[in-house]
Fold each of these.
Amino acid sequence: MEAILQFTVECPYWCSFKRQGVNFAETYPLPPHTTLYGMVANALGMEQDDYSLQSELKFSVSLLESLDVIESRVVEDYSRIMKISRSDAKSEFEKNSVYSHTNIIRQRILSPKYEIYLKGNHDRIKHIKTKIENPERPLYLGESDDVVILTSIELLLENSDYQITETQQIDSIAEGVFIGGRIIQIPYQFVKHRDFALKQKIFTCGVKLSSSKPVHAYRIISNSKFIVFPND
């Protein structure tokens, strides 16, 4: 039996969902699935790079404000980071102590807030609810200093709390191309090659989307939202 965990995430200061880059760290306007998985894994106390649950868990994000409003609160700051450099090291001591510095520009979103839906096996989702209410480690969204507050945490059950249906009106981001939103390629999953790499998917992101034909969705009874999940 499946269940859905509904909760709101809010960063009281700022956060950054970094796109891949060199000296300019641009941010996505919403948390990617990989970021949300990392937050849940942290709550469960899982080891770093433990992606054993990612195939079981499906995330969806319902935007509480438009992308334009979110992006109007994006600021840029400058950071100086140290990188190990051994090219000019001569002695063993130097090989272990030579560093180089580089400056980067990082985008951050001021005080973002999102509504998150997490679908999976009932027992697994129930356990996750317990853990995000009492996490094994401090929770953050994005970088380790991006503190996050979770509120309105609800376990939703089919029929009593949500109904499986079809709809042409969507109240969450949706995989693929839809009307009324912006198409963004978002990190979706970690895949194993030599090292872990990010698998990305195309999503349409907006407060309200529409489809030319009915799509599989979950109608949340408490707020009448139609939520869709990837691969459904």
Amino acid sequence: MNDSKAQEQFENTIARKWFERLRWEDGVSCPTCHNLHGIYARNCLEGYHRCQECNRDFTVRHHSVMRSSHVPYYKWVQAIEWIRDGGSMKSELAEKIGVTKTTASRLIKRIEDGKVSTDQNNAFFREAVRLINEGEGI
């Protein structure tokens, strides 16, 4: 693995763990059945957990504005910072974080939706945006 790839993986792990701490400050719970017990980490997949109650795998992304996104966690943080700093053109964001314009547009939309969502599953995301906006991010 080259140094830049290792650095990206390191940054992504830090960002993922930060999102996990925000979402599950009282311990991991299943976003599907809300089970608090019988949750275990999947050894073969970093960041994945399995609920023994409903037998589903999940990550911090599940049932949130980050659902079904393959954008690395650290790029979500960079996109939130870019919006905080007044960024508005999807082409600028795409270039800055190395994604397509379509992906940048979707990120912007999801971040804006997450900032105003009243869904409890997005509370951690609203908190992440607030912390980053106040300069208290990762």
Amino acid sequence: MTESTPAADVGVPSTKPTRPELARPGIVTAAHSLLLAGAVGLAVWAATDHTANSPHTTSWMIAVLGILTALAVLSEMTSTLLPSGLMNISGSFLAIALAAVLLGGAPAAVVGSLVTGIGWLRWRERGDLFRNNLVTFT
């Protein structure tokens, strides 16, 4: 007869998965730092008006930015750990995408960096994972 697994154990690893160590963590840290600095620089450059005739694509509507940031932070704080234990699921990305559509890239980067920073206070992921999320959402 074929052996079957109980329904509660389907898709859940029996042991905690291991992650291979980084070969050169200093290079990864430097790359994350450079990417973050580049993202912040690009956001500042995109938020400023370069010529008198150029269309201004960023809209800093503070009320909308505050509401979207508050909803994204609330979603991040109430996120759920998946049964595999490897990832959290939340709706914060929806607020970041909505900020990008309604307000522009620079305000969306502000929302993404705030959500990532505040979310780290709850989950306390490792430094390399935190920097990766910060670069990704900024």
